[in-house]
Structures are given as C-alpha cells and as structure tokens.
User: Fold this.
Amino acid sequence: MARKVTSKTRRVASERPRKPVAVIDIGSNSVRLVVYDGQTRTPIPLHNEKAICALGKGLEKTGKLNPDGVKMAFDTVGRFVKISRALGAGSIDALATAAVRDAADGKAFAKALARKTRITVQTLSGKQEAERSALGVLCGIPDADGIVADLGGGSLELVKVGNRRMSEHTTMPLGLLRLTEAAEGDRDKALSIIDKALDKHKWVSKQRDKTLYAVGGAWRYLARVCIAQMNYPLHVLDNFTLERQQAISLFDVISRLSQRSLEQIKGVSKSRLAMLPLGAAVLERLLEVVKPRALVFSIYGMREGQFFKDLPAAVRKQDPIISLAEEMARAAGRSVEAGYESFAWMSGLFKDESARQRKLRLAACLLRDVWWTEHPDYRAEQAFLRVLRLPFLGLGHEDRAALALVMYYRYQSEATAPIIEQAHALLAESRIERIQTVGLAMRLAYALSAGAPGWVSKTSLKIDGEKLVLRVPGSEPLFRTGSYDRRLKRLADHLGLMAQIRIT
Assistant:
C-alpha cells in the first residue's frame, strides 16, 4: 500500500542531520550570501549568491553611501534572509564592512536594514574585518606563515599570520572603488597613494621570504587570468601558487592585454574587467614591498573566517583535510574505521614518508570507497575529477593532484585516461610511483575485505627481502578464495618484488 504523502512527511523528509549556517557579507561593492552545510571543520557551501550593489560608489567624494546601492542592498539582503531561512539556517550572520563603517550614514543604514529584515547587522571595525580575513585563510591553511592581504571594494586588510594565529594587522581605505575614485582613474596616482599608505606600516616590509596570501574577488579573477595566460594544467583557484618574480612578470603581461583578450578568458566577468588592472597593480606593489617567497591565492576569506570563528573549539582543532575525508566517507555510507585500518595495514610500505605524505595517504584511505555508486567503467575518472576540482579542499595544487591520482589508481591500475595527464604534469616521477603504490595497496585491501571493517587487520603486508609477503589466517573462510592474489601480484610487480602469500 502506498504511503500517503502529507505536509508532515515532506517536512520530515527534508530535515537535515545538522543545521546550515548563513553569512551575509555586505561589502562596499557586492553583497554576498553563503549558506554553509553545517558546523563541520570544512566550510562546504550549500548556496552561494551575490549581487553588485556598489554601496561604496562615490563614498570618497560624498562621504555617504550610494543611494541606488542602498535601495538595492535592502532588497538583496531581504532576499538573502528569506533564502537562508528556507534552507533551514540555524544562524544568520550579517556583516557590514568598510563602506558602511566609514560612511556618515552607515550606522543609520545598518539599523534600518536590521529593522526591515529582522536580523542583527554587525558593522565590523577594521580590526575585526582583518581578523576574520586571517581566520578564513587559517581555516583552510592552518600552517599559513606570512601576510594575509584581503582586497575589497572599500578597504585593504593586511594581517600577519604564523604558528596558527594572527598578530599584527592594519586596515587601509585602499579598496578598488575608493582607490579608483581617489586616483581619478590615474594608475600612477593610485600607486603613489598605495606607497604612502604602506610606508606608514613598517611591519609589512619585515615579512620577506614568507608567503603572501591574496584574498578577495578582484584577486580571484586575477588568478583566473594568470591560469589562462600560463596554460596551467589545473583550473582551480584555491591555493594557486606563484613565485614572486613569476607573479610580477605575469602581472606586467596582463596589464598590457587588450579588453578583447581579457573578455575571452573563461570565468572573468565583464563587471570585473574594469578593476582588473588596478587590482593587479595593488598586488604587484605589495609583492615589491613585502618580498614574499611565494604568492598564494585563497578562496577562503572574511566569510569563511566568520564561519571558522563560530565553530566549537574542539572542531576548530581538527585537521581540515582529514575531517573532510571522514565527512565524505560517512556521507557515502562507507566505514571510516575501515579507512584507518587500511592506512595502518599498508604503513610498512612507507617507512620514510614525511608528515605531509602520511596525512595525504590517510586522507586517501578514508576516501577509498566514496565513489562506489558511480558506474564501474567511469569510477576511476569520476573519483579523480571530483578530488581534483573540489572547491573547498584547502590543499596546495601538487598535493591536490597527488590525492586525485591516488583515487584514480585506487580504481584503475593503469593510466589509460587522457585526463590524468594534467595531474601528472604537476608531479615528479618519483611521487607518481609512490601514488601508484598507495592506489594499488588500497585495491588489494578492498579485495581482501570488500571495504568492511575488521578484516584487513587480520592479515599483514610486509616487504621481506625481495618478496612482498601477505599473511592471511588459514582458519578464516573469507580468505580461502577471492581476487586478492592477483591484486597482490600487481602491487608486487610495481614495487619490483616477488609476491608471496603465507597461510598462518
């Protein structure tokens, strides 16, 4: 008998195991809503939407918010609040930044907006905005060491990060809208304004040979242009990294590109093109002053900083990559315990691995069966692409490519798909060999246990001289047949060893 569907059953079916959280960023140029999936260690966007309101347009001359932008912001935030509640958000953080903070009518605007939408609107101080930008980067890169630079429409925040915390910081009215108006469109005048502002903050020039983390929409679009100019094999913005001189040379080339050339670059909106040359100029000047070892573009910023700030202390201490891998395994209905078991079982093959290699291998073992619902003919490809292009992984590009390749070799022992060439191009041959070893070992572990916990640990895998030895208990019927002998031989051949099964 079919079950009658009522409003109550629809409501129960749509209930989520955790409450989403919403952040509304009321910026000088855009107003953006991000609804995150819940209070997990990794901020996973459930919905992401923005509107260009240009609240800060004309602020440099009038000292007040743009009237047209105010009207649009009221409508936009009203829509965003409705969306957040419709998606079941347990909290809505509305944060106003530089334009509202500095405008003569900013306080009245924030009060009226709160009254109309029935939410609390917090106007961040320069220090608070800088701190949240730093927290956003630390959310994705806990070991970040250098300066976080967040360029918005109304301000530029600089924050020193290291040892998993932030220290010195400054905020300057050098956002792209205000800088354009102050310089009256003159690039040289804009650079002079930047130089005078930076000269007041001597600590900035004392962070050389570390890393500069670029945050903000303008610089994300600049990263897209760099990727296109370089024919870079991985079209992922997060943690896209350039050496300092390489970045300066690229920015010089980009500054000479025609409007038509820029418009042809995929993912660069026309509304951003006008600001792109000045955004590149600000970043180039920072590179010359700070003299970092490398420039890293981060997709995590102020909104993710707010998300991270509100997490329970115990969750904040988790490793973002391992936490995400565990979450993905659980969501796919696969055993996290079996992942840890496989990781420990194969560890004898990797005695000289670094802490970073060890963490990536653990993440791979946790993710090993996540793509079980994909068609077997496409499972390797889908697993590879999913990891390679995840928008919220927080990994450097080499590590991202390495993890994606491990997942490919987990499902496919031979590299037959052309798509994996882009990942191979980022990695040394020795690292690819290690990646193949991890993937083949995971295939063997699955052949032994079918992914169920408690079985792999009843066996052992060791290198004994010129042999790769798998010990299995003779008393267990589970191991008396199966395809694991073929998987063992494939792994042994890869390692240049003889395969041997010993019954204990």
Remarks:
- The chain has a mean pLDDT of 91.
